[in-house]
Structure of AMP-binding protein:
Amino acid sequence: MSRNKIGVCSINPKPERGDNDEIEHQHRSGAAPGAAVRGLCQRVKGGCSMKTAAESNPSYWPADTSEAVLDVTLGDLLRQVASEVPDCIALVEAVPVASERRRWTYRELLAGSERVARALLGRFAPGERVAVWAPNCAEWIFLQHGASLAGIVLVTVNPAFLPNELEHLLRTSGASGLFHVDVYRKNDMKAGVEAVRQRLPHLRHAISFSSWESFLAEARPDVQLPHVSPVDTVQIQYTSGTTGFPKGACLHHRGIVNASRYVALRAEFPVGGVWVNAMPLFHVGGCAVTEIGALAQRGTFVLLPAFDPGEMLEIIESERGNIALLVPTMILAMLEHPDCKRRDLSSLQTVLSGAAVVPAALVRRTMEAFGCAFSILFGQTEGNGVFTQTRLTDSPVQQSETVGTPLPCLEMKIGDPLSGEILPAGTPGEICVRGYQAMSGYWDMPEATAFALRDEGWLHTGDMGMMDAQGYLRVTGRLKEMIIRGGENIYPREIEDVLVGHPAVGDATVVGMPDERWGEVVVAIIRPVSPQSPPAEDELRNWCRERLAGYKTPVAWHFVEAFPLTASGKIRKHVLREQLRSGELETLPVPVEAKA
């Protein structure tokens, strides 16, 4: 793959509006577009530049076509790989006891997936939605490939969801079927399924993985598999819900195949290598970026039932893993585990990370402790996975302070949140992308789809960022997370990066809270390295004042043992804000001497 960096150039897009939760609500509720735009203009007061793309060094990246997009389905890719390396190990179910681990070759993975496809077509028609509510397991992988071969849309559901949350996803997706486990972490999922079925007449079949073999026995060998197009929807994945109500993003074959393949190539994942994964399969990072990335490189996909830092370290050692995608909380747990120094991790070549803020200090610490390279990813569900990624050959500054440049064949711009015009390099604005990666839309939500995908196909991500003259992207936060204090725009990411650089801070997040005088003020929530001895507030305040302008320094501090997280490791800031407003945020007791 070419490593030549493409210089930025100028285009002249049509004016666009930025993505913002308040504006989206006005748009969906029928408010005049002008009102929505006025609301956004007030929200980003003082930050709306009207400079045009004609100025030098615009924040625009043209699509790099040096690596062609594969016009194939997920099933096409599986068939191709199985024909080339039929006897190579494709899948390992890495349960804790090594002797109980199951393994499948590519020949066996294809044959098993085709059997699943035929069994599915005995109950469902191509185009119908079938949900899966289960933790990581080998059957999940076979179901994913079987559904793709049958032209059936897989709806992924977080196994931690309670029955009412499950019901919402089944109802809004119109799922005709559901595969589930009977129990997950003491949650009686079988009983939950029976309860919601009574209220979902369109749910014709609910199949437990405990009866998986009986289901497979229904497969008729004479059933013909349908033609499936690369543009067909392969999965509906619901947004992780860090900011409220989730929407079902329709992902297509072309998007998940190529986005995952490009990640593997940029990470220099070797052909026939071993990819160890503990990311949840219901998340795009687990079922697409990792599993399909391994498939595209004819590699072995080693699947953990769930993340455990000690087990992850052991499996990288015993399975000779070459690469792993780990969110920052996972990396920290592995670094702090007592087995970290005694395990042989010499096979580990690259750690990928993303989904949450990846501090520069964590990048350096990981590379030193594991003796590996590091690559940071940035993307979202609506984009079939990853948008940008750092290269292993990037400079230390680019590697630790940016999220890299766009993947091949993807167009990107930093747009003015109000007008949509391309901003000059180094100016913060909304990250917008265009190309094969954009979702088909939100399931059964035409207005939300039109709002996210507008003006000639640009996907408005709702993320704020800056692009430098070389095309490297820095993510500064979400549009709705930007804090405006006395007319000054404050980006939480900048403050969070400073806070996690403090040796006593394990993790940190920053939110804006209403204030009569300033409009909003900065509040920090800290997870100390040692909960028994959190750092003094004055110490943290001075740390920030030495590194940031005074108005960016938090005025209030809260210390917690853990953050409310999504399954992908993102901090649920809207939950923290509500807890702060209600006074329900449970914080660690701060010793008297720490307050002095």
Q: What stands out?
A: The domain at 482-595 is CATH 3.30.300.30 (GMP Synthetase; Chain A, domain 3). The two ends are 56 Å apart (CA to CA). The chain has 19 helices and 29 strands. The chain has three domains: 21-67+408-479, 74-379, 482-595.
